[in-house]
Amino acid sequence: MAIGAVWLALATILCLEGYLLWQVRTAAWQMAVRTAENATATLSVSIARNLNIVDLSLAGLQETVEQFDLSGMEPRLRNSTLFDRAASAEDLGAMLVLSENGDVLYDNAGWPPRAGNFADRDYFRVHVNTQRGPYLAKPYVSRLREGDHSVAISRRWSDADGHFKGVLIGAIRLAYFTNLLGRVNLGPRAVLGIARDDGTVLTRVPSTDGTWNVGLDLSRSEVMQKVLSGAPQLFNAMSKVDGIERTYVYEKIGSFPLYLVVGFSHADVLDSWITEAATIFGLGTLACFIIIALFLSLQRVLDRQMDVERDLERLATTDVLTGLSNRRYFDEVLQREWDRSRRMLAPLSLMLIDVDYFKAVNDKLGHAAGDAVLRTIASTIAASLLRPGDMVARYGGDEFAVLLANTDQTGALTVASRIREGVASLQAQALNGGTMVAGTLVAGTVSVGIGTGIVVPDSVSSVEDLFRASDRALYRAKRGGRDRVEACGIEEGMEPFDETVAR
């Protein structure tokens, strides 16, 4: 009787476990589907909106060139009339007016227009006869922007009698789509892509060929055939590109002949669940005997997870070689300090420090010596910062950045001089038992550029302007002979930089 009760209890526990695990599995699957659907809907709306902005600009351009004779206007005024602010958007590669022969007549980049003939492009040929537009071209390699992968929206330019006068195009960098899709994380085996309705790929994340699979023809793939045939918007299929079975969600992008396709791997959804299921099943059979042990085990798992999270957080903000903050964390702190300085009307200084002739150290002594130089200089810079709020980070290969909150240019120059002198003194320290690699002295000098500004609430300046000021000062320091400190105000960072003048 007792044994039967035990078995009944165990069977009950196992049944409850099975039901619970099935519910967890169902919830995980539903969450994955919902996440993919939400990502698809959000991305498609965003992409369609931006494409519509380009097309609306082209429609305005089409109306202007067809209704007005602009040939006698002053060139710069004509460009301002033809091209609105959308034509200067970061992701817009170019907005052009092409003649009936395919030559560039007007160019949003300025006057005179860049030279080029595009009569061979599909976005030109399609308008020669009848199509007025808009037309979405196949992806291509730009001839005006050094091989930049792009896609174009085009419209026909006709005279009052309907005769062909030329083509209006707005080119969009495919990097815009790639960067947008790259921000979405649906698992390590997930895939996001954009393709034309003829199966031509505009971009695929992740890439399998190093070029984001631009131009790949997937018209015969199982995935695209289901998409183009109007299959249910949630389906399973095998990827022709990497052979992974996924569940796919797709969405047509506005009125354009484009589809956004998002796929998540079954393994990504079920991996964590399978591990959890095995653990729960094993522990459940002994639940009546090891409740305390289960609690302690769970506590240890949580502690380990917290340790791992702390380690990951530290690794995410720390440069492994030098132990300093890394660029990502430095950028976050810089933005916070910028916002605080704007509120407090306090000065903010940024230093960019470059190790002089570092490449020569690597070439002559090897990377071990180079690493030793970086570690030694990093510790010297850190030791030169006397306030707890001052921050130093390794910002690039042989470049460091220092952030000095509430510090004007005079104070920043004092700190920079202390850093430069401290690094220069490493030569003498090394001779007295300092850093040696393979019997060779490792020391060096640094050049320091300082950018300083007081940010007022209605200022148009930005963090990028402060960076440009620091970079400009560093350029002067290096051009002035290295092993020196130069400073610029943020106002100089807001001005165009002419290297020929700097020389």
TrEMBL record:
PROSITE patterns: GGDEF
Boundaries of every GGDEF domain copy: 346-490
Enzyme class: transferase
Catalytic activity, as annotated: 2 GTP = 3',3'-c-di-GMP + 2 diphosphate
InterPro entries tied to this protein: Diguanylate_Cyclase (IPR050469), GGDEF_dom (IPR000160), His-kinase-like_sensor (IPR054327), Nucleotide_cyclase (IPR029787), Rev_trsase/Diguanyl_cyclase (IPR043128)
Listed Pfam families: dCache_1_like, GGDEF
Protein name: diguanylate cyclase
Lineage of the species this protein comes from: Bacteria, Pseudomonadati, Pseudomonadota, Alphaproteobacteria, Hyphomicrobiales
